[in-house]
Amino acid sequence: MPHARALGRWLLFGLLALYTAFAIGPVLWLASMSLRTTAEIDRAHYALPTTWHWWKFAAAWVDSSYRVYFWNSVIVVGISVLILVAIGGMAGYCLARYHFRGNRVIFFAIFSTIMLPPQITVISFFQILVEYRLFNTLAGLIIVYIGVQLPLTLQILESFFKRIPQELFDAARLDGYSDFAIYWRIAFPIATPAVVTVVIVNFILLWNEFLYAVVLITADEKRTLPLGVYKFMGDQFSDVGMVATGAIISIVPVIIAYTFFSEKIIQGMRG
Amino acid sequence: MSTIPPRPPRHTWRVIGLFLAPAVAAYLLLTVYPVLRTIYNSLLEIRPREPSVFVGARNYVQLATDKTFWLAVKHTVIWATLAPLLEVGIGLLLALGLYARVPMARFFRVAWFAPVLISYVVVSIMWSWLYNYDWGIVNIALRAVGLEALQKAWLGEPRFALAALILVDVWKWTAFHMVVCLAALQGLPREVLEAAEIDMCGWVRKLRFIAVPMIAPTLLGLLVLGFIGKMKVFDLVWLMTQGGPLWSTETVSTYVYKRAFDWNTFDLGYPSAVATVWFAAILACVILFVTLFRQRDTLEY
């Protein structure tokens, strides 16, 4: 019996290890190609780098407009997340802590839009941004991202604010805090874990966003990273090694975030 | 709902208004308005630098007999049904594996989750290469085991392209479902499982007959959310096959995009009609699922 059990455990371990190879094998392969030249890759597609060609990262960064794409993404994602936390935080707090007629109606009206297919808004966003001269601008993309990510942001923050014990607020009110001071000086600092979750989830979703970006941005100098990588792939089509380098550059921030906050990210994406 | 909340005094209404105004404004301007405008668009013919023409239900009539649209619907429904079943199924098995306390469980979990975080652009580059005819791993593996006859340009053959794309979707999202299943398993009361232990239940039977039925609501929820989510599938298809070859991977979303921004028809009215119909279909699914679960709940308790 113990033998059968141990055998079973090793079998299970083997199967899970096999799935691990399937899950991260392709990523490691891409990473290895990012450090090899296309000539090397053509000789052996599945091999580890013999010399580590770090210069390829510099080349991709300098020779193409990668720097521009990267900073565009930083600006768009950074500002979007900041505004989302600001307006989602206030609304989430209000809907969680104030009882008033219509509270749930407002919450579900906003939250339910989480299931909207992007297509139902993308065509009219195109028209709207053209009309307001925001087409092909980072500001236009930021505005759209705020609209798209608001329901998720509101939901995460509202459910956190709801769980804070009422006594805290009563005490603050007795101490003479105004409504806004209670929010900003007491509730918001307590909600730091939820805010971190919101920042992480929105960062990952928006950093990778493709559909709205490809419709609303056509100028090269306004491209975000996903569009940049897409274009880079088209330009360097036969230069497999260089495409791999470009692809890896685009996921570096996500990898860094994941190395430090893997648990937090897994939890956040789940919620 | 025990007590009726006291009516807030007037100054509180002002506070509530200030707190809510930005979010409500964003909601009205950036969600409600675009949605209503797309629905209205669907009744128009909109060409660049021309006044829009009101065409009534013409776009919808055209849609009813548009073979490509119905093909796209078919592919999307196949995708939305098959992918969640595979992802939740495999995700559950993986979660059970970790729940059985294998060594290195933490590493497994973190490694598996990585694909969830990688952008579709990078995913599509990687997988187009893995499916490459000459040096893709799939064909290399087939050659290695002597099955040269089965080699294919996986994304180039209409019969296999859709399945090849769904596999990539499964690769990317399975770990997400695994994490949710694992959390549900870890949330189960220990006593129940210990009771089963006393009853001489083996690991496998314990999981099969006690743990899995207990997290059934979670699994069902994942399947439903997965289905609704996959109804919107766009990025992967657009980046890897653009709906081809021969429409074999066309989905509703890629068709909308194609008709709106990629064809020389230059009409935004017709794709708006497609989007509106699909929006209605998703809404109908959501309402259907919600009412179904309501009934189940009332039956159970």
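qc> Chain A has two domains: 2-56, 65-235.
qc> done
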